[in-house]
Amino acid sequence: MYLVQLKEINFSYENGPSVLDGLDFVLQDHDRIAITGPNGTGKTTLFHIILGLIRPSAGEIHAFGKKMEDDNDFSECRSRAGLLFQDPDDQLFCPSVMEDVAFGPLNQGKSHNEAREIAEKTLRSLGLWHIRDRAPYHLSGGEKRLAALATILSMQPEILLLDEPTAGLAPEASEKLLAILDTYPARALVAISHDRLFLDALSAKRLVLKDGRLHS
Amino acid sequence: MTCERLAAGTSTLHTTDPRVKLCLAFILSVTIALLEGCPAQFAALAAGFLLVCWARLPVRETAGRLVAINFFLFLVAAVVPFTTPGVTAFSFLSLPVTWQGIELALSVWLKCNAIAAVNIAFLATSTIFSLAHALAHLKVPSKLVQLFFFSWRYIHILEEELGRIRTAASLRGFRPSTSLHTYRTLAWMTGALLIKGFERGERVYMAMRCRGFNGTFWLLSHFHFHARDGVIAAAGIVASLALLIMDNRTRCILFN
User: Fold this and answer.
1) CA of B212 to nearest chain A CA: how many angstroms apart?
2) Hey, are the CB atoms on B219 and A135 less than 8 Å from each other?
3) pLDDT per residue over B9-29, tens digit each?
4) B33-45 as b/e, with b when 16 or more CB fall inside 10 Å?
């Protein structure tokens, strides 16, 4: 069974040229895929389409053995596939790191105590426990990125979708990120990245997004 | 964050249940707006400042906010004494100034400052997130609460974007002056600010949806109504009633 399958996806921005043009994509258990390609070719758009944040003009999306039709389908999909945004500032909006990390689990219907426990466990495992009470917009770049990752891992997603996870990170922070990703038991992982060192360490299969399609 | 700078504190008011604070801010604001006589208005202003002192707010920041309000009040206070009909008190540049006008200006000034002080003491001592949460608890329609919460999110974003655009411009040697070049640049900056702010807003909303946001406001440390909150609520209501009774007994005697 495929975890995610995209069939013949077409997408174009309003009054703009077509971005994705008959794109096919398959994600299976244990896959580690790296997507590269020039800027503006629709890599981020592809992630947004998988999670139903934007709708393609044509094509089918299947996730976790189910055809995605409406927002209800996608909301389950979003809970099982965690997307790390390019800019952590987009992702952190609560008054404290702790609350940001607990936000997802609470939305998943966990009780306050459960959410608090999960948040604590996640923050400790990422080495962020000491910044739990800080305001997210006051963190350093590296801390922000890890905090954003914590908000996703706390939802215990099966798939990780990482959009330029090492962009703007110092080498030490990148290594820390890699170490965390190595220990997290994700069923599959897709990363958009141009960072050679990161991709080598991840030992991911490379795909190139060009002319609206994925090429190996 | 600028608008939450006063929310960090440990005073009794900071730790009071935001629901109680919201209700009291509303009740006292309406009460003060209804006061007709100067003595009660003075008392209200004094009460407002006592509350601000009780909240142990940083003096500079609090004063800065009151100065901003008083700038606008000054415009009103400068015009009203000339435009209100009544008994002439004296003439200024051959324009008559009336007692009624002076009284009205004074009353507007007192009430506005009193209401501002009360709201700074009660509302600025909570984070916006907990105020939004408290509003939701008080059964304010969810759409209004979300509108309030997102406005705050976006204002903060716009503020940040503006900072970045200004830095970018000044790094390239932009110095504002009275010239067409300046006006054109400012217009471009405004346009860029709106578009960037809008796009970031869209991405924040996407990120929220990714984490299952469905309009519910979670607050990890849930509100607990303590006996102390009850005492503060009762004290606030008694104070409102006292102001109204005082106002009833002592209508303005200064000018009549």
Assistant:
1) 5
2) no
3) 778 888 888 899 999 999 999
4) eebebbbbbebbb
